[in-house]
Structure formats: structure tokens, C-alpha cells
Amino acid sequence: MRVAVYPGSFDPFTNGHLDILGGSPGCSIRSLSGFWCIPPRTACFPEKRVAMIIEVCKDLKNVRAIHFDGLLVDFCRKVGACAVIRGLRAVSDYEYELQMFSVNKQLAPIWKPSS
Q1: What is the mean pLDDT of the chain?
Q2: How far apart are CA 53 and CA 12, in angstroms?
Q3: Three-state helix/strand/coil letters over 35-57
Q4: Strand 4-5 and strand 33-36: pairing?
């Protein structure tokens, strides 16, 4: 099985997040929705985010909401992910995501996800 990780603070989890998750190619195989909490950020729903995502995604097969701390590349290694799902709203998002991709590629140049 292949695993895709959809990281984000999801504060709150919106219809836009759900649309991206539902439209991801990995969802038809097995998709893992990763939940990334960034400590310095003040959250509107600090304790309820995972529960909210679980409730919203309950009808999507093979989607799980998991809280994780630390680096995304470490979490991807841990769950054997072969893809990361991200959404873009504007050109500035693309530029930011390109920078994050470059850093993640340096941290984990090549890894073979577990099957």
C-alpha cells in the first residue's frame, strides 16, 4: 500500500482542505492525513483539531488524522510515505512550498518508503 501525508496546522480544517484531500490521487489507494502542530502558533482549536478532522473525514476510506511533532521528513519516514499532499492558494504559496521542498529534499534526499 502507498501512503500520502497531508500535513498542515488545520486550524480549523476547512472545506478547502477536505477538497484537496478528497481529490488526491493517493486517496484511492491509501491516504494518511498527517496533522502538524506548530508550537509557537496560537490556535483557535488547540485541543479539538484532530477530533474535528476525524469527524469530517469519517466517510473517506483509508484516511486517518494523526497529530505529530517534529520534522515532516521524519514523520514521512515513520509512516512509509511516498508522497506529500499540499495545497496552493496563490503564487506566494508556490514559492513557499518550493523552498520547503528544497529543504525537505536536503534532509531526506532519497528514501525508500516501506511497502
Answers
A1: 75
A2: 9
A3: EECCCCCCCCCCCCHHHHHHHHC
A4: unpaired
| Beta-sheet pairing, 33-36 with 65-68 | parallel
Q: What is the pTM of this model?
A: 0.73
The closest of 66, 89, 70 to 4, measured between CA atoms, is 66
The greatest distance separating any two alpha carbons of the chain, rounded to the nearest whole angstrom, comes to 37
Closest to 38 measured CA to CA, from 9, 67, 77: 9
> pLDDT tens, 15-46?
888 888 775 555 444 555 565 554 445 677 76
Hey, how many other C-beta atoms are within 10 angstroms of the C-beta on 82? 17
Q: In the structure grid, which three cell numbers stand for residue 92, read together?
A: 506566494
